Amino acid sequence: MKLKNALLCLFVLLSFWQCNSPQKEILQATTPVLGVTSQKAMVVSAREEASKIGSEIMQQGGNAFDAMVATEMALAVCYPNAGNLGGGGFMVYRTHKGEIGALDYREKAPLRAFKDMYLDQNNKYLQHKSKTGGLAVGVPGTIAGIFKAHQKFGSLPMQSILRPVILLAKNGFKITEKQAKQFNDHRAVFKQVNQENSIFTKKFKVGDVFKNEALANTLQQISDNGRKAFYQGDIAKTLVAFLQKNKSIISLKDLENYQAIWREPIVFNYKDLRIISMSPPSSGGICMAQILKTTANYPIAVYGHNTTKTIQVLVEAQRRAYADRSHYLGDPDFINIPVDSLLSDAYLKNRMDSFSFDGATPSHQIKHGNIQAPESKETTHYSIVDSYGNAIAVTTTLNASFGSKLYSKKLGFFLNNEMDDFSAKPGTPNLFGLIGADANAIAPQKRMLSSMTPTLVEKDNKLWMSLGTPGGSTIITSVLQTILNVYEFNMSMQQAVDAPRFHHQWLPDVVKVEATSFDAKTIKNLENKGYVIDYKNPSSIGTVDAILVLPDGSFEAGADKRGDDTAVGF
Ligand code: GLY
């Protein structure tokens, strides 16, 4: 009873601290449920073992960047469908001094890649080639990413950070129920793609201990010999031989050439929030900025959470932003992206001129906006804050679940199928139904466009939130709905993460909503206005992991109930 009263008091405090429309107070008074809280530091990730290792590194005096390295590698061990050595990702950071930045360790197209590499002589798109097997693999960036982050900000030796991860791979971890199902569901495809049995083709049940000796050895080599072990040394040679045997065009030169890159993040305001998110080659920051800046012109707190009017505003803003994404966004090292124009208030206002609450704007009537002078499933996210005041948001991926399904038995890890994130044939949808154009065409050494949206949010010049999610094209809309759930609808971090989500991406012209989680009347209202609603698909939208800074400076986690996600802090 005492705990309940304390939670209630905290929520009353939160209501004064945040905006306080009458509607918000009602919502809040009825839902006093906080996630895990901590005083000094916290990691929220897809697996308890990874959050624990990250948190322990910080308890030993390490900072959020040391914990990033540990968590990223621990996820590669205990969440191998998305955690990786064979993929890539993005990090957005904010230091205790308030300095912000972004790290791009996205995969790249190999030197021998070319625009029509997935088309046959009749111009037919051979879909399977960009999705499974060697030709689907982009040059991995994750190991370059962790070393780049560690070199600039790390405080503990790499060997100390990797030690508990190597032990995790050696001693194993317990398979959860969700994981047993996921591994078992993929057994047949692992066998088919790799043409051999491996530790992943066994039948699993909940509670089985899963050990990966080969991965422990690979991590040990990286710990002993550094980044070059992966990009130039023995691992590189073994990896390239394995890839080429499986029809990949990746060479030793590709690995040698790979560099992670520091980027300027996308920064914009939503009312009094300052939002810092990932810049191209991710579309996340720009798309989210377009949608939120458009949404700010409508009183959605008054309309209410997931009501017909709120859904209409967000869906119409999403429709227009994803149309722009398809046309304008790609690797900034190869194309000019008109960022300022895409984010200008006048442009965004003009884009909504065709919107009316009376009915849906069909997607075939929406094209990308007109800008005259151009300037330039499966992923995982974790958020970390440390006791020094540093915060990071990291999203990392193999693209599909277990990427290309190609698994190196010698090295102990899966390879990505990130090449499918390119626009293989303009107008033809990729794995996530996204349509691309020339801006995201394949070219040697180019980075494929992403939707990953690791994001930090400031309020009153202080860190307020760190968040992100997997989910392909739905990443952007999941992240922005989570921010709105706390800011506009006064939910706790855990509630905001767990709340039902919806998604629209221009094409296909469908609003995807999480099955059984929206009331029938709202669905009917939207259908009557001309929206096509997909509410029967049982798959969920995103698995958000987030941290909110509470008014007293402590942290509240939002670890998504949709997965095995867990927060660990102290
Ligand atoms: N592979 C999913 C993304 O980067 O958007």
Give the secondary structure arrangement, pairings included.
Elements: H1 2-17, H2 22-29, E1 37-38, E2 42-45, H3 48-59, H4 64-78, E3 88-94, E4 100-105, H5 142-153, H6 158-171, E5 173-174, H7 177-194, E6 209-210, H8 213-225, H9 227-231, H10 234-245, H11 252-257, E7 261-263, E8 266-270, E9 273-277, H12 284-295, H13 300-303, H14 308-328, H15 339-342, H16 345-351, E10 378-385, E11 391-399, E12 407-408, E13 413-414, E14 455-459, E15 462-468, H17 475-487, H18 493-498, E16 502-503, E17 511-513, H19 520-528, E18 533-534, E19 545-549, E20 555-559, E21 566-569
Parallel strand pairs: 17-18
Antiparallel strand pairs: 1-20, 2-10, 2-21, 3-4, 3-11, 4-7, 5-6, 8-9, 9-14, 10-11, 12-13, 14-15, 15-19, 16-17, 19-20
What's the gist of this structure?
The protein is α+β, with helices and mostly antiparallel strands and 570 residues long. The protein is 36% helix and 16% strand.
Largest sheet: number of strands, sense, barrel closure: 7 strands, antiparallel
Main sheet: which strands, in order across?
Answer: 1-20-19-15-14-9-8
Structural class: alpha+beta
Question: In terms of quaternary structure, what is this?
Answer: single chain
Strand content: 15-25%
Low-confidence stretches: 1-29
Give an overview in words.
By secondary structure, the protein is α+β, with helices and mostly antiparallel strands. It is 36% helix and 16% strand. The chain has 19 helices and 21 strands. It has helices spanning 2-17, 22-29, 48-59, 64-78, 142-153, 158-171, 177-194, 213-225, 227-231, 234-245, 252-257, 284-295, 300-303, 308-328, 339-342, 345-351, 475-487, 493-498, 520-528; strands at 37-38, 42-45, 88-94, 100-105, 173-174, 209-210, 261-263, 266-270, 273-277, 378-385, 391-399, 407-408, 413-414, 455-459, 462-468, 502-503, 511-513, 533-534, 545-549, 555-559, 566-569. The strands form five sheets. Strands 1-20-19-15-14-9-8 form a seven-stranded antiparallel beta sheet. A seven-stranded antiparallel beta sheet has the order 7-4-3-11-10-2-21. Strands 16-17-18 form a three-stranded mixed beta sheet. A hairpin with a 2-residue loop joins strand 14 (455-459) and strand 15 (462-468). It is globular and about 60 Å long. The two termini are 24 Å apart. Mean pLDDT is 93; it is low at 1-29. Glycine (GLY) is lined by residues 379, 397, 399, 421, 450-452, 472.
